[in-house]
Amino acid sequence: MNAFVLIALTLALGLVLQFTRLAGDKAAARLNAYVINVALPCLILYEMPRLTLDARALLPVATAWVVMTLTALIVWQVARVAKWSKSVTGCLLLLLPLGNTGFVGIPLINALVGADGVGYAILYDQFGTFLVLNTFGIIVATSFGGGASSAAMIARKIITFPPFISLLLAIVVLAFNLPYPAALSGVLQLGAQSLVPVVMVAVGISWHLQLERHHIAVFGFGLAVLLLLKPLLAWGVATLLGGEGVALTVVVLEAGMPAMISAGALAMRYNLAPRLAASLVGYSLPVGIASLFLWRALLAL
């Protein structure tokens, strides 16, 4: 539960900084810039080389990609029918397919399922969510955030995106089993550990407890996708792929995690409905954790 205490305390700190006006207008943007350029690359470089690849990787990774793809398609279609703005659509395409499958997901899987489920959770997170964040995520951010528009410019954004560069380096380290020097490993671990507290402070600074009226329906749709639709999709996909027991339970729970903190940081960094993004990240945490206990009870029946 230490992870949840840390989230609550740092979110509260951000809210205090917002309400007391101790944080300047650009504080959240600067904190998000640190996360994208420093903390997230450290997390990728530290965590990915520690994974073990074998046959068990297939179910969580395949389920993660199918669920995220289907979710993105559903969000895109609903946004078109509802005629939501480009900013709102980009925000939802970032936050709804991507769940907080790492920092919140892994300790929660350990608490709800046990140590046997942690390996599946790491695979779902690292080879599913993080890969999509560092490819699809940056495409959405640059395309919907008023940045690069041509294919060449988007490709350049991707290959120069610090987390994506870190991902490529981490894959090389993993493939060739290259050990880090102890000092470097320690630095990467410290950088990775700074990600969540810094982002949650930024979320608290940006988070408005009262949503803009025209975003209430969008917010409700977002919570329904995160906490209901995605776990149902994961259950269907994993069952079709032959998943059962601990593996099936883990992928369903991972699919139902709250909105991804790093995706929220990316949305706010590119000005994609930042108040909506902050609210989805903030509100989905307590509601999402409660819903996961219900999903765990249903899966145990």
What does this structure look like?
The protein is mainly alpha-helical and 301 residues long. The chain has a single domain, classed as Na+/H+ antiporter like fold (Up-down Bundle).
Write the SSE topology:
Elements: H1 2-19, H2 27-47, H3 58-82, H4 86-95, H5 105-112, H6 118-144, H7 151-159, H8 162-175, H9 182-193, H10 195-206, H11 216-240, H12 245-255, H13 261-269, H14 274-299
Helix pairs in contact: 1-10, 2-8, 2-9, 2-10, 2-13, 3-4, 3-6, 3-11, 3-12, 4-6, 4-13, 4-14, 5-6, 6-7, 6-12, 6-13, 10-13, 10-14, 11-12, 11-14, 13-14
Shape: globular
Which regions have little confidence, pLDDT < 50, spanning 5+ residues? none
Rg of Cα set: 18 Å
- Return the CATH architecture: Up-down Bundle
Residue-averaged pLDDT: 87
Number of strands: 0
CATH class: Mainly Alpha
Secondary structural class: mainly alpha
- How many domains is the backbone divided into? 1
Distance between the termini: 25 Å
Question: Helix amount, in percent?
Answer: over 70%
Strand content: under 5%
Assign the CATH topology: Na+/H+ antiporter like fold
Give a quick account of the main beta sheet: strands, pairing sense, barrel closure. Answer: none
- Helix and strand pattern: HHHHHHHHHHHHHH
Protein traits:
301 residues; mainly alpha; Na+/H+ antiporter like fold
